[in-house]
Every structure is written in structure tokens, then in C-alpha cells.
Write a structure and sequence with these properties.
- By secondary structure, the chain is an alpha+beta fold.
- The chain has one domain (about 5-145).
- The chain has helices at about 100-105, 120-135, 140-145; strands spanning about 5-15, 20-30, 35-40, 55-60, 65-70, 90, 95-100, 115-120.
- A hairpin with a 3-residue loop joins strand 2 (about 20-30) and strand 3.
- The longest helix is centred in the last third of the chain and has 12 residues, at about 120-135.
Length: about 150
């Protein structure tokens, strides 16, 4: 379930900060000895300045401390040919660590509590990791995790 590059769909996902739960995709960026995972919650929200708008790939704006990886809704994201319904963004400052045991406790049943949406295409996953680990807007501890 927590293999690197796996995209999981939770319905609903319970946020760490206690905000309301809602359906959410979850991208496993790094699995640390099956104890913790570094992951991202992709979003439709576009916070990238209009002049920097791209359809797909890495955006690095050090002047405003913004790092974002954009997935066009026109590209296949997974090995099984799935695409996001909307242009989707992963922001470097929003990646976080999640304890695997805690996730397994909250979401025990596949196809009930969560669905394995697919495995990200390898070249796309490598591009995403490179984008995040080379960004100054990603916390240093997370960049170190991504480098290992």
C-alpha cells in the first residue's frame, strides 16, 4: 500500500490539523523502513502566479519561495493509464510525514476506506522527486529524506 510512487485515493481523508475530512489523493514520495512515509496531498488549487503558468512539470520560484509540480489533466499519470480530472498541483511546502501504523489504523480496509488509484509512471515520479529535492522551499529534512 505504501510503495513509493503509489497514488492512494482516500474517501474521506482526515487531515492532521483536524480540519474537515474530504476525498483526497495521496502520493507516497518516500517509504522510510515501513515506519513513516513522506507524502503529498495533491490539490486542484493553483497558487502559481499567472505569468509562470505551465501545463506539466516543475515550477521553482525562489523569489517567492514557491515550488510546485504540475500534472496536466491531458497526461497519463499512472502505469495503468489514469489521469487526474483537473490540472493538479503538488506544492513542496505541503509535503509531510505520516506514520504508517496510524494510517493503517484509520484506514484498515482497501476498497472501503481507501483505493489504490495506481502506480505513478516511473519517469514522471523521478521528475517529481527531482523537483522537490532540489528546491529550497522544501524543508531541509524532507530534501534529505528524498535524497536517500
Amino acid at each position: 500500500m505504501f510503495k513509493e510512487g503509489t497514488i492512494i485515493y482516500f474517501d474521506p481523508f482526515y487531515f492532521k490539523n483536524g480540519n474537515r475530512a474530504k476525498p483526497k489523493y495521496f502520493v507516497v514520495l518516500k517509504n522510510q523502513a515501513n515506519q513513516n512515509i513522506l507524502a503529498s496531498l495533491p490539490t486542484r488549487t493553483d497558487s502559481v502566479p499567472v505569468k509562470e503558468d505551465i501545463d506539466n512539470g516543475c515550477i521553482e520560484l525562489p523569489s517567492i519561495n514557491l515550488n510546485c509540480f504540475v500534472f496536466s489533466n491531458d497526461i497519463e499519470v499512472t502505469e495503468c493509464g489514469k489521469s487526474f480530472d483537473f490540472k493538479t498541483h503538488i506544492y513542496g511546502h505541503q509535503i509531510d510525514i505520516y506514520e504508517i501504523e496510524y494510517l493503517k489504523e484509520i484506514y484498515p480496509l482497501e476498497n472501503t476506506d481507501y483505493e489504490i488509484w495506481g502506480e505513478m509512471k516511473n519517469n514522471l515520479f523521478i521528475s517529481l522527486i527531482e523537483c522537490l529535492k532540489n528546491s529550497k522551499s522544501v524543508k531541509r529534512k524532507y530534501r534529505k529524506i528524498l535524497e536517500n
